[in-house]
User: Fold this.
Amino acid sequence: MENSSVSPVPQDTPAVTPKVRNTRVLVLVTISLAIFALLMDQITKRIVETQMFEGQVIDVWPPLLRWFYIKNSGAAFSMGESVTWIFTIIQAAVLLYVAIFLVRKIASWRWALALGGLMGGVAGNLTDRLFRPPAFGHGHVVDFIALPNFAIFNVADIFIVSSMIGICLLLFTGHEVDGTKVVHSKTPKNIQKNHTEDPEQD
Assistant:
């Protein structure tokens, strides 16, 4: 009787599908943009703090643009200055929700840019809330960009507002985080969901 050795059957290594690979790239783009927005916000605030005194005004492009250094205890655009701790909690909750529940679902370049900008902007102002005087969680945000007849704001506010506008447009046009697009038919009761990405690769 012949001795035959049974060689182990090689197991196939699970292949990384293009969709999974694309999602990883989009997550990386989202995180990179968030870090960029955070750094831009904190660097510009640091420059203002070291080069200007509170209340100082510098004409950059009069009468359209000025630097006006103030410390804001409220929300974006100097609103709600008497409830600083509430905005700290809200910002932290938004940042955690986006980071934990939305980023991992991203399959759209548009959503990657929108969520990355939102995360970076929220993180910028949240950093001020947590680590600037007068106290942890009650820190004042540095604002310095002044336009005519408009509230004073900062780089983080720009990223937040721009990203929220982008998110509203994406939702209005039916583009979802996972890359699908909701198509509304003429009859309100019939709503289709198209799982094929558009030619632009959302």
Q: What stands out?
A: The mean pLDDT is 83.
